[in-house]
Amino acid sequence: MSALKSRRLFLAGAGVSLTLPFLPSALWTRRAQAATGVAPRRFMSWFVPNGMVMNNFTPATVGTAWTPTTILAPLAPIQKKIAILTGLDHENLALPQPSPTGNPPGGHGSGTGIMLNMMSVDGHATDATRMSVDQLLLPVLNAGSAPRMSSMQIGLQGDNGLCDRADCSFSRTLSWKNGAALPNIYDPALLFDAMFSGATSATTGMPTPASTAAAAARAAEQKSILDAVVAQATSLRTKLNAADGAKLDQYLTSVRDIETQIQNQASAKPLMCTIPARPASPGVLNFNRGITPSTVLQADMPLFVQLMGLAFTCDITRSITYMVGNGTSNNDYQFLIGSSTPHHGTSHHNGDATKLAALTKIDTWEIQQLATLLIALDNTMDVDGNTVLDNTTFYLSSDIGDGASHNHWDMPVIMAGGASGKLKLGGQHINYTDGSSGRGPALALPRSGATALVGPRNPVNCTGQALLSILSAHGLPATKIGLYTGTALTEILA
Q: pLDDT at position 273, please?
């Protein structure tokens, strides 16, 4: 048995790795290589308008043992696959002083316009070098066989004429390519058509992407590999002594456990592409109406969450930017609060307890929608035996930190996923204003004015560093994005 033990091989699936000490290497290796899948890498950015109630967002402790706050509670099931970054700052980039033009945009317009590109709106509104990180990643994400849609831009709200003294493109999109805004799709029905146009099923009449058959073939091939392992091990059983036979029996039990996980457990469903019914259109969009009706939010949010999940699992796109409302969003949360509650107006809380309670409910609802999507991606096994979330890089932030002060420091930032093993988020909370990042002492600046709802500034650490970290995790190391020059956050890189 020594020759066999010197050629140990491994079975990886559903997040578990098993040593195969007793199987002949030649047959297993040939079959395993035939079944090896290279999973696509994916990126998603998620914009939440009007900041967050940071006191109810920020965990009380740093490290990995923090207790989820009210707003972050929906993320508890996948806490180990996220990182909460607080205290990051880009005030000097969003609203440079002195203003290059003498007429800077408001906090919402400047913050939305800079979120993924770090290029100030003030003085750089027509700069052809503006490129968002989702577009910078495309050569890596779409290498090899490109998906149907090079990238996807989606927005929940399509009717807000409040653009905060800036070109409305800066409030209505996150994605920029060579200085041009890539507009959002606001209609779930139009998004459905963009995703699933093509061949239709003869029996259902529904569009059927080619990836459906590919996913089924991969799942069948994976099962056949497990069957082959068991068959080989069973054959070998007759050649072993009692002690080695007992070890092999333990191994067979482990393999059956893996097979059960892959085929049956809810947290490791095979990659599937099941197309839903085409959603109804929400009607004609009105960009001057100012307030998005509550009924639109209720109807469209779950549709967008479902379609974005399918866009990744069906490999229709590998890059998504999503906006839960435009910059200066006045989505009406009546369905959540019980009375008409336009988001932007409510975010000007001035410390009012009733408004802060309503904002906390809105913030928690936004994170609940996010959690629904991330958990679904983590419950879907990718072609390489990891989950879709493991092969995704996710980034959330906002236009401002706090709705009353319109600051661009202590920004809410959530990262999730694994960048196919290149990120090490590990459930960390890192606060860049208290020294927990290991990047030197925090700046001893006072908290914000009368409301004291945001942390002190720390211009040493910038949200641009999170974007540089995303580029680095995808093999695109850089020290500059937009107008920001700096370094990646090594504490979140593998």
A: 77
Residues contacting 446, CB < 8 A, separation 6+: 456
Residue 381 pairs with which residues in a beta bridge? Answer: 270, 387
As a whole number, mean pLDDT of residues 172-183 equals 96
Bridge partners for 153 per DSSP: 321
Fold of the 42-204+273-492 domain: Alkaline Phosphatase, subunit A (3.40.720)
Rounded Cα distance between 52 and 44, Å, is 20
SS3 161: coil
What letter represents residue 168's amino acid? C
Spatial CB neighbours of 134, under 8 Å, sequence gap ≥ 6: 43, 45, 116, 151, 174, 175, 319, 320, 321
pLDDT at 412 over 80: yes
State how beta strands 180-181 and 176-177 pair: antiparallel
State yes or no: pLDDT of 9 exceeds 80: no
Angle at Cα 322 formed by Cα 147 and Cα 113, nearest 5°?
115
Lowest mean pLDDT among 32-46, 123-137, 182-196: 32-46
Distance CA 189, CA 280 (A): 6
C-alpha 213/C-alpha 208 separation (Å) is: 9
d(CA 258, CA 233): 15
pLDDT in tens, 79-113: 999 999 999 999 999 999 899 999 999 999 999 99
What does pTM read for this prediction?
0.79
Residues of the chain with CATH 3.40.720: 42-204+273-492
- What's the 3-state SS for 370-437? HHHHHHHHHCEECCCCCECHHHEEEEEEECCCCCCCCCCCCEEEEEEECHHHCECCCCEEEECCCCCC
Beta strand ranges found along 24-94 (DSSP E): 42-48, 82-88
- Summarised one tens digit per residue, pLDDT across range 293-313 is 999 999 999 999 999 999 998
For residues 396 and 305, what is the distance between their CA atoms, to the nearest angstrom?
A: 15
